[in-house]
Each structure stands twice: as C-alpha cells, then as structure tokens.
C-alpha cells in the first residue's frame, strides 16, 4: 500500500507560517486601503468646503453688484423720466444682459479650472502601484 507518512512538525510549522504570512499580508492590505479611504474622505471634505466657500463669496459679490446696478439704473431712469425714459430702460436692460453673459463666461472658466476632486488620493494610489511593481 502506498500510505503517506504523517506530516512532520516542520511541515506543519511551514504551513502555519504560510497562513500567518497570508494573514499579515491581508491585514497590511486592509490597513493600506483604510488609509487611502481616509485620505479620500479628507480630500472630499476639503473640496466641498472650498466649493461652498467659493459659492457663498460669489453670491455675496453678485448680490452687491446687482443691487448697485439696480440703484444706479433707477437713478438714470428717474433722471431721464421726462425726456428719454425708454432709452434709459432699454439701456439698463442691455446692461444686465451683457453682465449676465460676462458672469456666465467667468463662472464657466472658473469651473473648468478647478482641481479634480481626488487628485491626492489617485496620486498616492499610483505611488503605491509603482511601489508594488518595484518601479522607482
């Protein structure tokens, strides 16, 4: 009969060390993943705070500018009420249309130039990927 010899203590220790090594590798991978997720969370929070702050300042500036323009336009219309009231109203309307186009263009340019949301996390993951492959 072809019976296998019972496993010796060294074979059992080698199998246990392989399992322990795999567990350690798995734990290290989970720790690295958790670190990267924490980094992504912080980046998203900072990005959202930056966006909210930018929107609040933009809204405040826009509201003040529009109120100033409205009061200026009302002053012009009142001054021209007896002679050229339609010209004053059409000029004010044209002014607001031009300002809307300018504000829209500036807002679109600002939106295109914003940094990507997870640049730091993606950069760190690329660094980890190079480290795993052994590329300097």
Note down, in words, how this protein is organized.
- The chain is mostly helical.
- It has one domain (9-133).
- The protein has three helices and no strands.
- It has helices at residues 9-79, 85-112, 119-133.
- α1 (9-79) packs antiparallel against α2 (85-112) and α1 runs antiparallel to α3 (119-133).
- The protein is rod-shaped, with a radius of gyration of 33 Å.
What is the topology?
Blueprint: H1 9-79, H2 85-112, H3 119-133
Helix pairs in contact: 1-2, 1-3
Feature tags:
single chain, 136 residues, mainly alpha, 3 helices
Content-based structural category: mainly alpha
Give start-end ranges of low-pLDDT stretches. Answer: none
The portion of residues assigned to helices is: over 70%
Number of strands: 0
Q: Which H/E pattern describes the elements?
A: HHH
Question: What average pLDDT do the residues reach?
Answer: 79
- Summarize the biggest pleated sheet: none
Gap between N and C termini, in Å?
Answer: 56 Å
Number of self-contained structural domains:
1
> How much β-strand is present in the residues?
under 5%
So how many helices? Answer: 3
Shape: rod-shaped
Radius of gyration over all CA atoms, rounded: 33 Å
What's this model, at a glance?
This protein has 136 residues and is mainly α. The protein has helices at 9-79, 85-112, 119-133.
